Amino acid sequence: MEIEYSRKAAKYISGLDRPTKQRIKTAIEGLTETPPKGDIKSLQGYKDGRKRLRVGKYRIIYNILPNGGVEVLYIINVDSRGDIYKQ
Predict the structure, then answer these.
(1) What is the pTM of this model?
(2) Distance separating the N- and C-terminal Cα atoms of the chain
(3) How many whole angstroms separate alpha carbon 36 and alpha carbon 17?
(4) Considering 23, 52, 54, 80, which has the largest number of Cβ atoms within 10 A of its Cβ?
């Protein structure tokens, strides 16, 4: 499974301190396992099957997209708990 990041998610992760960045990257790699690891819930109100992964006070919004024969784990957004759901 490939992992792709949106520009917004990559920018947020790059601005974090090293231990937090490592925790988030480890959690994202856990999503590629079968079954996925972590506190995962489906998001309501989206028809594309988005899910969220909780890592401490951070939330990772992601989707799994089929791309030919390879599944792509697309990280849509990463932010703190209070700000991630605001649009």
Answers:
(1) 0.90
(2) 29
(3) 25
(4) 52
The yes-or-no verdict on residue 35 having pLDDT over 80 is yes
AA identity, residue 23: R
- The token pair at 42 is 């489906």
Q: How far is the C-alpha of 67 from the C-alpha of 25, rounded, in Å? A: 22
Residues 83, 12: contact at Cβ < 8 Å?
Answer: no
Cα 25 to Cα 36: distance, rounded to the nearest angstrom? 14
